[in-house]
Amino acid sequence: MKEYDFYIVPTPIGNLGDITLRAVDVLNSVDIIACEDMRVTQKLLNHYNIKTKCISYHKFNEKERVSKILEMIQNGKKIALVSDAGTPVFCDPGAILTEELRKHNVSITSLPGANAATVLLSQISRENDDFAFIGFMPRSRNHIENIINKYKFTDIVFYESPNRIVSTLEVIKDTCDNPKVAVGRELTKVFEETIIDSAENLIKHFSSGTVKGEIAAVIFRNNNREITDNLDEKINILKAQNFKAKEISTILTSLYGVNKNEIYKKTIGN
Question: Are the beta carbons of 54 and 33 closer than 8 angstroms?
């Protein structure tokens, strides 16, 4: 098997048994493991009796670590990069390092392995294969709304922290008219939970107690979004044909499945 100077190695997102045989071989064979949190990585290494030396590499020191890691590789060392869980560089530190290593013609490879987004997507049924992955959802309501509107015709996959999931779902509910959402929590762990429901029902579910564990989620595309974006035009066409507000709301609701009360309010407001 070909040897490389630098290995990007996914680690389990919860269940330690999910590491690949090749990942264990690489972590055993390299000279150095660059890791996000040495305490977290050490638990994994101890579980598989891996004795390789570790150095810290995280978002707060990655710029200063780049030159040191490059120097070690140029001196003949083989290095593996891991994050606390999942695939490095994928919503985790590593982009600055890999960019610099490629500038110096360092041979790099990535191993396949655990990823929370693909774990969730493999559990749920979707109408189409395409999706937009945005990483961690921003905190600002305006930024969340912008993302939802930008990708309104596709499924949106995102990560969220447990303490923010309810507030994020509230923005999603308001922006998308209460869409269907899938939420995966504690994926691959003992208390794994995957729920597919309306944003409103998920808000009720997660508001009932303390939410624990990292979260991956999907906002399902609304095939009626294009229709609802042009509601004013449709309302005006029907009003020009002398339909009353109640008639208009009944017609558009039956044709497109939109909210009857909202149509009525729009009609009398126009």
Answer: yes
pLDDT for 231: 76
Query: 104-113, 120-129, 169-178, 252-261: which has the minimum mean pLDDT?
Result: 252-261
Query: Structure tokens of 100?
Result: 């610099």
Sheet holding 32-35, edge to edge: 53-56, 32-35, 79-82, 6-8, 108-110
* pLDDT recorded at residue 34: 97
Helix spans in 190-244 (H): 199-207, 225-229, 231-240
Return the CATH number at 33. Answer: 3.40.1010.10
Question: Rounded to two decimals, what is the model's pTM?
Answer: 0.79
For strands 131-136 and 79-82, give the pairing: unpaired
- 9 SS3 class: coil
Closest CA to 120 of 82, 160, 81, 83: 160
Is residue 75 within 8 Å of residue 31, measured between CB atoms? no
106 in the same domain as 32: yes
- Output the CA–CA distances (angstroms, integers) from residue 49 to 26, 43, 52, 101, 165, in the order listed: 13, 10, 9, 29, 37
Residues 142 and 74 grouped into a single domain = no
Assign 95 a pLDDT band (cuts: 50, 70, 90).
very high
- Judge if 100 and 143 occupy the same domain: no
